[in-house]
């Protein structure tokens, strides 16, 4: 725990944060990261990582921030369902090459308030209404993800509270969207 890219607990025995962004890393994400049972933050942004998100990452029960943006990760997201324990606050998977649908169960992640998926052009609909059933989503960035038309459920934003929502560059239909300031 002597590296500036690794943060540990007070005893120095448990890794709490691993920041490996902007290092030019290549290859796949090591599934062994999931063995870090007390990991709160994993940031591997802006590298050249390929392959899928290991299904073992679902066992990161204490993860608060999972940021894998700006890599070359691919595959579907439906096999990646982070724990619904309420600890995951930020999920940043933007600017990769994911395909398939956005898992509806992501709307059930209790603590998720920041979701970044923009730039994953091969995602397809239907758009999961459950994402908008969260009580509060501070940041929702879903621009430029659907290359084919996708339908938003009618009245999807009723009762939905957010600071930032980005949906530009999609072929979305079906929404009677009403936005207002309180």
Helices and strands in order:
Elements: E1 6-8, E2 15-19, E3 26-28, E4 41-43, E5 48-51, E6 65-67, E7 72-76, E8 90-92, E9 97-100, E10 114-116, E11 122-123, E12 136-141, E13 150-151, E14 161-166, E15 172-173
Parallel strand pairs: 2-4, 3-5, 4-6, 5-7, 6-8, 7-9, 8-10, 9-11, 10-12, 12-14, 13-15
Antiparallel strand pairs: 1-2
Describe this protein with a few key phrases.
15 strands, five-stranded parallel β-sheet, 182 residues
Structure description:
The chain is an all-beta fold and 182 residues long. It is built from no helices and 15 strands. The chain has strands at residues 6-8, 15-19, 26-28, 41-43, 48-51, 65-67, 72-76, 90-92, 97-100, 114-116, 122-123, 136-141, 150-151, 161-166, 172-173. The strands form 3 sheets. The protein has an 8-stranded mixed sheet, with no helix packed on it. Strands 3-5-7-9-11 form a 5-stranded parallel sheet, with no helix packed on it. It has a two-stranded parallel sheet with strand order 13-15. A hairpin with a 6-residue loop joins strand 1 (6-8) and strand 2. It is globular, with a radius of gyration of 17 Å.
**What gross morphology would you assign?**
globular
* Main beta sheet strand tally, sense and closure: 8 strands, mixed
Element pattern in H and E: EEEEEEEEEEEEEEE
- Measured as a percent range, the helix fraction is under 10%
Strand segment tally: 15
End-to-end separation: 46 Å
From the helix content, strand content and strand pairing, which structural class follows?
Answer: mainly beta
**Rg from C-alpha positions?**
17 Å
């Amino acid at each position: 725990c002597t590296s500036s890219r690794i943060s540990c607990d007070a005893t120095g025995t448990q890794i709490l944060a691993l920041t490996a962004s902007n290092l030019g890393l290549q290859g796949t994400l090591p599934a062994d990261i999931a063995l870090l049972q007390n990991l709160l933050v994993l940031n591997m942004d802006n590298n050249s990582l390929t392959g899928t998100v290991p299904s073992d990452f679902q066992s990161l029960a204490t993860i608060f921030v999972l940021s894998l943006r700006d890599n070359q990760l691919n595959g579907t997201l439906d096999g990646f369902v982070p724990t619904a324990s309420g600890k995951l606050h930020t999920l940043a998977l933007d600017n990769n090459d994911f395909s398939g649908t956005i898992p509806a169960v992501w709307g059930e992640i209790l603590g998720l308030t920041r979701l970044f998926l923009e730039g994953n052009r091969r995602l397809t609909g239907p758009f999961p209404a459950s994402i908008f059933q969260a009580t509060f989503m501070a940041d929702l960035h879903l621009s430029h993800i659907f290359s084919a038309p996708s339908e938003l459920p009618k009245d999807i934003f009723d009762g939905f509270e957010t600071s930032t929502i980005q949906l530009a560059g999609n072929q979305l239909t079906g929404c009677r969207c009403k936005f207002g300031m309180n």
